[in-house]
Specification:
Low-confidence stretches of chain A: none
Distance between the termini of chain A: 34 Å
Strand content of chain A: 15-25%
Strand content of chain B: over 45%
Number of strands of chain B: 12
Largest sheet of chain B: 7 strands, mixed
Helix content of chain B: under 10%
CATH architecture of chain B: Beta Barrel
Strand order of the largest sheet of chain A: 2-1-3
Number of strands of chain A: 3
CATH superfamily of chain B: Acid Proteases
Radius of gyration of chain B: 16 Å
Oligomer: heterodimer
Structural class of chain B: mainly beta
Low-confidence stretches of chain B: none
Number of helices of chain A: 2
Structural class of chain A: alpha+beta
CATH class of chain B: Mainly Beta
């Protein structure tokens, strides 16, 4: 079974830059901050461990 | 199903995103990680960055993990000059391929930038995965290769 990270690999170019996402199986929950998407995912899937990330927005970067 | 073979190389594909301002696709060497702290666990992505001397975690994720931050900050140097960070001991960070862990760091110190939006994702620096693996960035093939160093 594919992980949520592997699923995100297949859709990553279509995700909205700058948004936070939580993913459980193939369900993508989008929001403006990490806590919001995590809590929404835990409410919907209380027994699952969500994958969360911020969608990168800039192709040019130096951390 | 992926079964880690610690003698063999582990290959992780880059992730690809779209920059709407530059109107172009860009790729990043991000890997799948799990962070455990206290009773809380999340999985997220992390940048493998040989330019970072330490491991960083965005402050937004410390809120999700319920990590208590110390009162005092110290300073780190970044591309924009120095910025305040908290130093926090994290119970466990695991690096995953599919859903299987192939690298684990227990009680690892991480730097947490004090300001939100300082970094978009965790950064695995030279104090973590670079100590366990020889890492090759194969930019043209869009993947990273992790190989156990020969002893």
């Amino acid at each position: 079974m594919e992980s949520e990270f592997e699923y995100v690999m297949t859709i990553s170019e279509t995700l909205e830059p700058g948004k936070w996402i939580a993913v459980v199986n193939r369900d993508v929950i989008t929001g403006d901050n990490a806590k919001e998407v995590f809590e929404k995912a835990k409410k919907k899937y209380p027994d699952k461990e969500p994958f969360i990330m911020k969608v990168p927005e800039n192709a040019t970067m130096l951390l | 199903m992926f079964r880690p073979d610690y003698k063999r190389a582990i290959v992780c594909r880059y992730l690809s995103f779209y920059d709407p301002h530059l109107k172009k696709r860009f790729r990043l060497p991000l890997v799948h990680i799990r962070i455990k702290h206290g009773r809380n666990t999340i999985r997220t992505d992390a940048l493998v960055d040989s330019g970072a001397t330490t491991t960083f975690i965005p402050i937004e994720l410390t809120e999700v993990l319920g990590i208590e931050l110390p009162e005092e900050t110290s300073e780190a140097i970044g591309a924009n000059g120095s910025f305040p960070i908290y130093r926090v001991k994290i119970d466990l960070i695991e690096v995953l391929k599919s859903r299987q862990s192939f690298c684990r760091f227990k009680d690892i110190y991480a730097s947490i930038p004090a300001k939100k939006d300082s970094i978009p994702y965790p950064v695995l620096g030279r104090d973590s995965i670079f100590r366990s693996y020889d890492i090759t960035f194969r930019e043209n093939r869009e993947h990273i290769v992790f190989k156990r160093p020969k002893k």
